[in-house]
């Protein structure tokens, strides 16, 4: 087991949500880098629209 202060280059610990720094449920597609909870909150502001 690596020490706690070890910087992560890949895996779950390497990426976090840009809004709330959560590490779960990340959407990295299209360079969003935000969790789906924040995505639902900010989708309209970003310019995403529901088709149906």
From TrEMBL:
GO terms for cellular component: cytosolic small ribosomal subunit. Signal peptide: none annotated. Keywords: Ribonucleoprotein, Ribosomal protein. Component of the 40S small ribosomal subunit. Belongs to the universal ribosomal protein uS14 family. Component of the small ribosomal subunit. The ribosome is a large ribonucleoprotein complex responsible for the synthesis of proteins in the cell. This is Small ribosomal subunit protein uS14.
């Amino acid at each position: 087991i690596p020490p706690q202060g070890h910087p992560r280059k890949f895996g779950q610990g390497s990426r976090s949500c840009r809004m709330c720094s959560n590490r779960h449920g990340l959407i990295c597609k299209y360079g969003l880098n935000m969790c789906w909870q924040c995505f639902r909150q900010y989708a309209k502001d970003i310019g995403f629209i529901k088709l149906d």
